[in-house]
């Protein structure tokens, strides 16, 4: 009881999300232009931060006020400690299953100041079987901690570390937890993961290989249909600032993207996936998650593309959150259901 005899308002904890996939150390330099062969240029700015699709998605969820958990491989190397420290500072719980002595990959990123375009060099998860395993050894569920899904409302997988992603997605589906895919590129074994995915959002670059495309012609529409046949009830493809193409229950639609003066496109796709994960956890978690309607899907994508557009208007994947008003507006839209009502 409070001093005036009334019961204090009950505070509902925020939803918990799990992102499973790649963690890297990103070294980002802003330049006037990408150097030509054998040329050096002076960078305008330097940013060193944790990166990777699933990692950026988890950070986005934490910024939006959710309880964010990341299942990945970081390790205890000096590079790994930098990544772990950055994620702790951003409020992301890391479940690290790296082998002793492992180290995350380093991504070198050049951002062109005038356009916000980026050039990236990274070895990603191919650096190693950093624990000596084959990334396609997908039936070894003992790699995944038993309690990693406890309290989780929605899951995102990014196609990396398939030996973690497939058991997680399979277990999540068995519990009625919706599973989202960040489909940045086609990776060997992705067809096995798609069998356990509810919502797949593809990049403009992903193309389904002929042996999985069936009779489809390799066009955008063909790729959406091919991926849908592999499992997801909702398949979408982003195109930067152009509308998002969506296929849901055989119905095709497009979702417009808010225009923005581009400062930096780094991580914008990851932010989109993280914001959609947050929206799904907030508005569409539970046993009916696989039955999302076209209206539900469009509402979630409108919210997610709005956050991604904000990220393009600031430096780095999460520079937009330095604007307290923009962050507060995004959180209010998420928790207030404005995106779900289409406003």
From TrEMBL:
Keyword Acetylation carried by entry: no
Lineage per the UniProt record: Bacteria, Bacillati, Actinomycetota, Actinomycetes, Micrococcales
Protein species of origin: Cellulomonas carbonis T26
Matching PROSITE patterns: PFKB_KINASES_2
InterPro entries per record: Carboh/pur_kinase_PfkB_CS, Ketohexokinase-related, PfkB_dom, Ribo/fructo_kinase, Ribokinase-like
Keyword terms: Kinase, Transferase
Family matches, as PANTHER family: KETOHEXOKINASE, PHOSPHOTRANSFERASE SYSTEM TRANSPORT PROTEIN
Keyword Transferase annotated: yes
GO molecular function (one): kinase activity
Pfam families: PfkB
Family: Belongs to the carbohydrate kinase PfkB family.
Listed name of the protein: Sugar kinase
Every Carbohydrate kinase PfkB domain range: 17-317
